[in-house]
Design brief:
Elements: E1 5-6, H1 9-21, E2 42-47, E3 56-62, E4 69-72, E5 76-78, E6 82-85, E7 88-92, E8 103-106, E9 109-112, E10 124-129, E11 138-144, E12 151-154, E13 158-161, E14 167-168, E15 172-176, E16 184-189, E17 202-208, E18 219-220, E19 229-234, E20 240-244, E21 250-251, E22 254-257, E23 263-268, E24 276-282, E25 288-293, E26 299-304, E27 314-320, E28 325-329, E29 341-342, E30 346-350, E31 358-364, E32 369-374, E33 380-384, E34 388-390, E35 395-400, E36 405-410, E37 415-417, E38 425-428, E39 438-444, E40 449-458, E41 480-484, E42 491-496, E43 499-500, E44 503-505, E45 510-514, E46 523-529, E47 532-538, E48 545-551, E49 555-556, E50 569-572, H2 573-579, E51 586-602, E52 608-614, E53 622-626, H3 629-636, E54 645-664, E55 669-676, E56 685-687, H4 691-694, E57 702-709, E58 716-722, E59 741-743, E60 749-753, H5 756-764, E61 767-772, E62 774-781
Parallel strand pairs: 18-25, 34-40
Antiparallel strand pairs: 1-10, 2-3, 3-7, 4-5, 4-8, 6-7, 8-9, 10-11, 11-15, 12-13, 12-16, 14-15, 16-17, 19-23, 20-21, 20-24, 22-23, 24-25, 26-27, 27-30, 28-31, 29-30, 31-32, 33-35, 35-38, 36-37, 36-39, 39-40, 41-45, 42-43, 42-46, 44-45, 46-47, 48-54, 49-54, 50-54, 51-52, 51-53, 51-54, 55-62, ...
């Protein structure tokens, strides 16, 4: 398929504009003179330059109407001159015009410009043939305005000047490929590399393949001895200049080609031959392995490109013995990559997204690896759109390669994950905690980091909290939180986790906020002002333990004293229910014993349930009774027919001054419920946690598993893994070996505190349970 390579329109436009802005002055006087038009015949400026062939060229000065002809290189004299005025004339630039000085002929002599005229024609390349090409063959380049090309440069710095072109016209260049040429770009230049003062335009043509000498496969010379004659068969062996042994020594060789076209190289194995590759080298210097002595490895490996790399880039690794490469391991990535392609001299491999700067390893079947250094592309910070912002405002940075940024860390420690939508601009949310004036750290997806310039963060104009409680303070749900507020006159409301709460703001700026009882870790406090709002994230310890009083008066049970005597008392069902009386709760008696103590619990019909008994010096100040199903049913299902009585309490030897119901609110968030198992060492139990629920996994939180042990077996074991068979690190043995949990038939749950390593494994795959006889019923966090 033919391809056309042209100078970009943007580059051409820039040249035209520069030319229009910088006409060349032409005056031989040395004295300073501010008079633009001096009289007589004189040229001040001409332009534009560059100018398009076929375009209009203007000359400004004095006596311009006296100009007889104008000479432009490549055109001869131009007499068709448009006279605008005595100060301006214009001519049309012929298509044959070339770069050079312009001469104006006057009745009294000639005026020559001090700068050369240049042109804006779009030099373009359409085809290069043949491709592949053999050194010494003629390469034909076809395109447009190729007559302006002064050099054809092969590989990196191998120029062929126009004097050595075989053919050269506007549409075509024919040039002999130098023997030293290598595979790579061909570059066309409109000025010679010998002209150090020239500003050259370079047109790169990618993809020229230069043929190398080759063999079907390197010979194995391991069993050969010094003095043995070695015959190598291959193609294009006439290009070989040198045969070199592994130790660098060059040996003499003979080239031959049979009548049937078979080509061979013959040489004698020297006495000092060492392990490694025997290579043949053409004039280009590219080494091609033709034989191996001993255990061969890739050698003289070069990565292209080796810097500015990003995930998904194709890297070409060239060297000798490259066919030995089986996989490539990138720094920062455990899993080795398969080559996209490979040959005796080249391996292509795609760079993984997670790869970092360092040494990639070329792995061989022998278990040996060869390192090659690479450097990744980094985000480049250029500027903040505004380097002074208010706390809580978005921050916008400008730069290059910003799509590589995955996370931003503020001075102060706050971290913000980002999803870039542009390579040149990135918008970053600003948390109200952990953000201070200073640099931002741009963290790439592979973990590499780059710092920005300094950002100044100013206090906002709406109500805000300048200093939040310290991390060492224990803040609890259900209590009043005291904060110091600024700009309190703007405050109109306070929300905790999206719910409006009561608050008090004192004239001296003290803000008291009524924190909900169940506020927990990562709670959001939002201050709403008349001119804006701001949010803070604060950790609370939720008040999961609830205690509600159902009786709060002193009753001396005496010696079984009756109700009228201030002893016996009743607890009513309505009060008990309001206080949370339920199975799993606890009934608490607060007592002061003064002698042998008994507290008897009766239902509404005086039916006894339990009697608590203590010696005077052994009775605790608070006695707890578990609310079982039996107790709950006896109390709530018994009626005396005339009152709401639940309990009748009587006894002796103590004063009861308070009775309450205590219970605990579960903070469990279930990630999965069902029935999976029973586990069997011949099969696995897989549990799928939704991606949204995985966001609840945080280091330091508790993960729990609920299960039961199947009665159909007599032993119960479980190993906790992800579906890639990686054991969760926190559930491994101390020495790092895999841990098998063994349970009793009555066991029903297991909890552990998660680490980031556990979370990473869970996020990478599903949960997997291996073992015997255990049925998993739930997975939760709290």
């Amino acid at each position: 398929m033919n391809k056309t390579y042209k100078l970009s329109a943007l580059w051409m436009m820039c040249l035209i504009l520069l030319g229009c802005l910088s006409f060349s002055a032409c005056d031989d006087g040395d004295e300073e003179d501010t008079n633009q038009y001096k009289g007589g015949i004189s040229l001040n400026v001409f332009g534009p330059s560059p100018v398009a062939r076929g375009g209009e060229l203007r000359f400004l000065g004095s006596g311009m109407d006296k100009i007889q002809s104008i000479s432009i290189p490549g055109c001869g004299e131009i007499t068709d001159i448009e006279v605008i005025s005595a100060n301006e004339i214009r001519v049309t630039v012929p298509q044959t015009a070339e770069v050079g000085y312009v001469t104006l002929k006057t009745p009294t002599g000639e005026i020559t410009t001090k700068t050369k005229i240049t042109y804006t024609e779009p030099i373009g390349v359409e085809t290069i043939t043949p491709n592949p090409v053999k050194p010494g063959e003629v390469l034909v380049i076809k395109g447009e305005y190729l007559n302006l090309i002064k050099e054809v440069i092969f590989f990196e710095e191998l120029p062929v000047g126009e004097d050595d072109f075989i053919a050269h016209s506007r549409k075509e260049i024919q040039v002999k490929v130098p023997m030293e040429a290598r595979t790579g770009d061909v570059t066309l230049a409109d000025a010679s590399s010998e002209d150090s003062d020239a500003l050259r335009n370079l047109i790169h043509v990618k993809g020229l393949v230069v043929i190398l000498p080759s063999v079907e496969a390197p010979l194995d010379l391991t069993a050969k001895k010094p003095g043995d004659e070695i015959v190598v068969k291959g193609k294009d062996l006439d290009l070989v200049n040198i045969v070199k042994m592994p130790n660098g020594e060059e040996v003499e060789f003979d080239y031959a080609k049979s009548g049937e076209g078979e080509e061979t190289i013959t040489f004698i194995l020297p006495e000092n031959a060492t392990n490694g590759a025997v290579v043949m080298i053409p004039a280009s210097g590219v080494e091609v392995a033709i034989a191996n002595i001993g255990m061969a490895l890739p050698e003289k490996v070069v990565a292209t490109p080796d810097s500015g790399l990003r995930g998904g880039d194709m890297i070409t690794l060239t060297g000798i013995n490259m066919e030995l490469v089986t996989t490539v391991t990138f720094p920062g990535v455990e899993e080795a990559m398969e080559p996209a392609s490979k040959s005796a001299t080249e391996v292509e491999v795609v760079m993984p997204v997670a790869a970092i700067s360092g040494e990639l390893l070329l792995n061989t079947a022998s278990g040996t690896s060869v390192p090659v250094a690479i450097t990744t592309l980094k985000p480049e910070f250029m500027a903040f759109v505004n380097d002074v912002v208010s706390l809580g405002s978005d921050v916008i940075i400008q730069g290059k390669n910003l799509d590589l940024v995955a996370k931003v860390v503020y001075t102060g420690g706050a971290e913000v994950e980002v999803t870039p939508t542009s390579t040149t601009e990135l918008t970053i949310a600003m948390p109200t905690m952990g953000t201070e004036s200073g640099v931002l750290t741009l963290v790439m997806g592979n973990g590499e980091m780059v710092e920005t310039g300094k950002l100044t963060i100013n206090a906002p104009e709406f109500c805000y909290i300048p200093v939040l409680p310290g991390e060492d303070e224990e803040l609890r749900g259900g209590e009043v939180l005291q904060l110091k507020a600024e700009n309190g006159d703007k405050l109109t409301g306070v929300q905790v986790n999206g719910t409006n709460v009561q608050y008090i703001l004192t004239p001296d700026g003290n803000l008291f906020v009524n924190i909900p009882q169940m506020a927990g870790e990562g709670s959001t406090i939002k201050l709403i002002s008349s001119n804006g709002s701001i949010e803070y994230t604060i950790d609370f310890i939720p008040a999961t333990e609830i205690e509600n009083v159902v009786m709060n008066e002193m009753r001396d049970l005496g010696s079984w004293a009756g109700e009228d005597a201030g002893g016996t008392f009743r607890l009513y069902k309505t009060d008990l229910v309001k206080a949370g009386f339920a199975v799993g709760a606890k009934l608490r008696f607060y007592v002061k014993a003064y002698k042998y103590t008994q507290i008897q619990m009766n239902d509404a019909n005086w039916g006894g349930y339990n009697t608590l008994q203590y010696e005077a010096d052994e009775c605790p100040p608070m006695i707890e009774v578990n609310v079982t199903q039996e107790l709950y049913d006896k109390i709530m299902n018994t009626s005396d027919g005339w009152s709401d009585t639940g309990f009748i309490i009587q006894g002796e030897g103590c004063i009861v001054n308070k009775v309450s119901v205590w219970y605990e609110i579960s903070m469990k968030t279930y990630l999965w419920k069902g029935s999976c198992g029973p586990t069997n060492w011949n099969g696995d139990c897989v549990v799928i946690i939704a991606d949204d629920d995985k966001k609840l996994l945080k280091p330091g939180k508790t993960m729990g598993f609920e299960f039961y042990c199947d009665s159909a077996t007599d032993y119960w074991q479980v190993e906790f893994m992800n579906s890639w068979w990686n054991t969760l690190p926190s559930l491994m043995n101390a020495d790092g070996s895999r841990h098998i949990w063994e349970f009793a038939a009555t066991d029903t749950s297991l909890t552990y505190v998660m680490t980031q390593a556990d979370i990473d494994l869970i996020n990478s795959a599903d949960l997997l349970f291996g073992g015997n006889g255990v049925v998993i019923t739930a997975v939760y966090v709290e």
